[in-house]
Specification:
single chain; 233 residues; alpha/beta; Rossmann fold; 48% helix; globular
Length: 233
């Protein structure tokens, strides 16, 4: 039996390693787990290249939201290095003009010292409607925003705005793939997950009940179970 497959986790917008705390604990016994730093570049391709330069030669890759956009870019650059792929609460589509306009507004707020207001607005969209007042979850989002900071947040938003359409890439993905989404995800709804899974041969689709956009911390037990099954193959 060979060495365990390393797992690289890529967080979402305004998120840090805290997004994957439950997975690090649960999946660590299956093999090495690292969380990529996605805060240093303002273009998706550059973020992907930096993560690849620091990643093991071959690895399993999981990304949530922005992490999914980065995962697609990593697949474009080095598909032979990615043995397994998990796309969580993300989209293969580019930004719409309306989405980009909202991001530009958030960028302006962050650049003017109002990242706390951005965080408050995003929290309402990140968490399931029944979990808006969960002090632990809202506290985690605020802590991740503090981990990120306004400058890195602006870089991340600029990278998201300029990301390419990844739908044409789906048919080329050959590694075992998990596509997971919360049933109450308002930012990347389940139909977008179904679109991704439908485009990747053999992909497994998991829709997590009573769950919003940040599935890894909202419903960690369900996400951990799906990821463990995906890793074990």
């Amino acid at each position: 039996m060979g060495a365990p497959l390393p797992l690289v986790l890529v967080p979402g917008l305004l998120c840090s390693a805290r997004l994957y705390a439950p997975q690090i604990e649960a999946l660590g016994p299956l093999g090495p787990v690292t969380v990529a730093d996605h805060r240093r570049d303002a273009e998706i391709a550059a973020v992907a290249a930096r993560i690849l330069s620091e990643a093991p030669p071959r690895f399993a890759l999981a990304g949530l939201s922005l992490g999914g956009y980065i995962a697609f870019a990593m697949l474009r650059q080095a598909p032979e290095r990615i043995e397994r792929l998990a796309l969580l609460d993300t989209s293969a589509r580019p930004d719409t003009p309306e989405q980009s306009a909202a991001r530009h507004a958030f960028i302006a707020m962050a650049e003017n010292g109002r990242l706390d207001e951005v965080t408050a607005a995003l929290t309402k969209r990140y968490l399931h409607r029944n979990r808006q007042d969960d002090a632990t979850l809202t506290g985690t989002v605020r802590a991740m925003a503090a981990d990120t900071g306004p400058e890195a947040f602006v870089r991340q938003e600029r990278a998201i705005i300029s990301r390419p359409d990844s739908r044409s890439l789906l048919g080329d993905i050959r590694c075992p793939t998990l596509v997971l989404c919360g049933d109450g995800d308002e930012l990347t709804p389940p139909d977008l997950a179904r679109e991704i899974a439908g485009g990747i041969s053999g992909a497994r689709l998991v829709i997590v009940p009573d769950c919003g956009h940040l599935s890894t911390i909202e419903r960690p037990e369900a996400v951990n179970a799906a990821l463990a099954e995906w890793l074990k193959g």
